[in-house]
Amino acid sequence: GWAHPRGSKTQRLVVKVVTTEILRLLRFRTCYLAHCLMNHSEGKPEVAERVFHLCPVCLRKMLWLSNADPLDRWSTLQAFMCSLFPDDAMWFNDRLSQVGAPTYVSFRNFNPLRERLEVQERAAQADRKR
Q1: Which pTM value belongs to this model?
Q2: How far, in Å, CA of 96 to CA of 75, rounded?
């Protein structure tokens, strides 16, 4: 199952195919520019050899489309990939290291939800005082 500590070849293939097909639904086309998840393939062996990451051109399209932050995306993907595909997770870890991404220690006390609730609570208290 999906809880297995290491992803099997079949799981790896399924994740790649599903991800590629989701991107195709989002109007991504076959990529011929670089080594990319969206590269053309004619069968199972070629899909299995594809990388999990997008080339810079496809990544830029995806970030524009989703309005996502690349560091957030790589952090999320790295966390997901670690449990199933640790070798591929290292690629995301390397990208995060190259751009100087913050570590867990720097965000240990950061909780945006808590901060949002505190702001809402202060606003409610100010409203009650009026």
Answers
A1: 0.64
A2: 7
